[in-house]
Write a structure and sequence with these properties.
Helix content is 10%, strand content 24%. With 494 residues, the chain is an alpha+beta fold. The strands form 6 sheets. A 6-stranded antiparallel barrel has the order 12-13-14-17-16-15. It has a 6-stranded antiparallel β-barrel with strand order 18-19-20-23-22-21. It is globular.
Length: 494
Amino acid sequence: MAKNDPNDSPPPYYPTSIHTLPPLKSYEEVVYGVGPGSTPLNHPRYVPRYPAHVVTPQVTVGSTPPSRKRRRCCNNNAQCYGGSGGTFLVLGLLALAIWLGIHYGTRLATVVIFSDDDGNFNNPSVNQPTQEFDTCPNTTEICDGIRDCTLGTDETNCVRFAEDGRLEVKTSQDGRFLPVCYSSWNQNQANQTCAQLGFRNFYSTKEATSLESRGLTVTSKPSAPIQGRVEISPSCPDNKVVSLQCTDCGVQQSTARIIGGSVARSGQWPWQLSLHDRGSHICGAVLISKDFVLTAAHCFLRNNLSPRDFEVYGGAVSLDSLPAPYKVEKIILNHNYNSTTNDNDIALLKLTSPVVFDDKVQPACLPASNLDLAHRTECWTSGFGTTDENTGGVSRDLMEVNVYIIATPVCNNRRVYRGAVTNNMICAGDLNGGRDSCQGDSGGPLMCQIGERWHLVGITSWGQGCGRVNRPGVYTRVTSMLPWIYSTMQQEKP
């Protein structure tokens, strides 16, 4: 967490000797490759703080992670995939995939999952990224409340939340997201809808006003998904629609803070988590419900991943005083994650048991689907990352710093990141330098206060150096990831 004001006393710098982590040199704030002959990354990233014995190669999403050096074809052609035999094999598999797609509506859903469900951790081939075929009949209707596809993807992107928590549902009848009329709503409907989305129950529901001319009325149909229990109505009585909140989120227990990069107080950022790999802090993470955690996909770029290697700690403001950890049951990387460009740099962790909320541990609010923050909006980022790019160790204390949203056209300026920032990313910091995330902050939150609650706007992803002029931090844009987040939570709901 880089400090922004040189006139303030600097945050403590910790020598590498007190950590179990290897020292970083001044040029190691970014990953440029994985071995001799590798192609440099176009987009540097904040390096996860892996333990010293961990190798961190690049991972191509949806395939087994490559070795550090390119494997040569062996002498025995029968054991190789090179040459004409391998070509025919690839073509044959491609033809089979096309045939399946034509005849059965099969589509490839590259779901990257590391799971301990089978408990088989001695086999090195287990828990590598996997591809799953989602088979959908030609008669599939999206958002009709009936699961047609084998993975259920036809029914997992049918619910979203607009401003003020207004519930919007997409149905097969219309194909648009429409508000739900409050006149036909009750607490049982609220509980069912939040449970459908992967939450255990609902926190609050109330009426809100909508200017939308059409709405959805809840019927008495027994179908469980909300999209199968509604029908289109010309309008909602008095324009009153449903506002739904599935969890009490974004509430700070401590609100006093010092602008300019400082040690955070207990309860100030209760959704901040520390992700540990085999006993060492490597990344930040964000609690979003009792069962699910968000972090960066690039925090898991090493071979032989097992969820049992990872733990997350909540409610901590010091790495020297950690509470009991939360165990990880499953690691799910975004299926569109690109390890070269850092696009879609997000992962969802499912915990083995629900988190108990208290004054120190609370979830962050997910943003509204239509949230659009103006340039120079003040937000905050936090983490246990190093306080200076030239130091080797992470901070032992949770640090915080206020940053400003930087419009994407500005961030893509030729003097800044020259078009490297995609629509799935958001920049924040200060073009004059100083306010920034740093190594070890990856996966942590970029939070903005909207009304009385704090919303997760970004997930720390990458940057060039820390706190440099014209090199702000780049975060995964959470609004772009909402369909994936809600879809995945639905598929993995407890």
